[in-house]
Amino acid sequence: MKKTYFLLASLMLFMMPSCKKETAPEAKPLEISVTEVQQQDVRLESEFTGETFGQSDIQINPRVDGVIESLNFKEGSLVTKGQLLYTIDPLPYQSKVHQAEGELAEVGSRLARTKSDYDMMVPLAKMNAVSQRELIAAKAAYNASMASLKAASANLENSKIELSYCRILAPISGLIGMSKVRVGDYVRPGSLSVLNTVSDLGDVRVRFTMSEQEFLRIFREINKENSSLKGVGQSISLKLSDGSIYPEKGKVSFADRQIDPTTGAITFEAAFPNPDKLLRPGQYVKIGVVTDVRKNALVIPQRAVIEMQGIYQVYVLGDSSKVHMQIVKAGPSFKDAYVIEDGLKSGDKIAMGGTSLLKNGSVITPKITAWEPGQVETVPTK
């Protein structure tokens, strides 16, 4: 029986087709985007936090006390210079005007009487019909009446001015904000009593601060002969809070006269055109100022750089389509690129990255890709 099983097993093995070992297919090289190291002049910008202000921001304060009688504008709308904004109850001030007019009339009557008395005294004094004492007294009474007339006239004028302050007009043309008071509120003069603010948004001012060290470095560089930073204050950029770049360029208007001793910084002010009224007072923005210009700098895409523990590395394309890892010294950022200070030369081809499968010594299928800092990647070239 055992022999029979053995024969059957041998027969089955004999009848089975012989199998050959198949070799695994070779892995296809990775297709990797490759670009050349660019060499160009680079204008490096530094960012500073700033706050926006209107070309003019005029606070509206009451100049007389009283009850607000009406609001004559739409909040958040454009107003024109001289437009009526608020009215304060004018009755108390109208009463003062009437009272001042009565006092002026009374003083005028007194003046007429004293003048008549003085005019009669003059010829009588020449005939010695009246004493010199009486003449002097008549002249004094006349002079006093003239002084009283001037005081009464001034009082009437002042009363009329106070009455005019009951009509609060727009000091400039611009955008008016939300009212701090409503009809029926009692207001009084004072710097703390603000009714509203009107802003002229034709040009918007942006104030930003720069450290003393940065200011000194830029100041010295600008004052060098043939400095590449001359005129940088005539074209500065602005980034809004959502990260978008404001389309208009600005100009530095002035720098403060002193370094703030509490912060060690100096304040600058720049002006930006605001044709669409996009910029409003109170916005916090980023100001971009060119603070360094590097001639013939080497730049590569940031996404091509691998950074580990402060060490920057790139994959450089060598012979036979092999890549090797190269340590580089990365300088400041420029748009979506790094300025490379050491480790590469112009014309080197580097892998753009994008895969974790790339290793030192890997053989790749290079896909040459045109690239410029800050531009969208173009279609690969054949």
UniProtKB/TrEMBL annotation:
Record keywords: Signal
Protein's UniProt keywords contain Signal: yes
Domain Multidrug resistance protein MdtA-like C-terminal permuted SH3: 296-354
Ranges where the Multidrug resistance protein MdtA-like alpha-helical hairpin domain occurs: 98-165
Location of the Multidrug resistance protein MdtA-like barrel-sandwich hybrid domain: 58-192
Domain of life of the source: Bacteria
GO cellular component term, pick one: cell envelope
One GO-annotated biological process of the protein: response to antibiotic
Signal peptide interval: 1-20
Subcellular location: Cell envelope
UniProt record similarity statement: Belongs to the membrane fusion protein (MFP) (TC 8.A.1) family.
NCBIfam families in the record: RND_mfp
Record's protein name: Membrane fusion protein, multidrug efflux system
Organism field: Flavobacterium fluvii
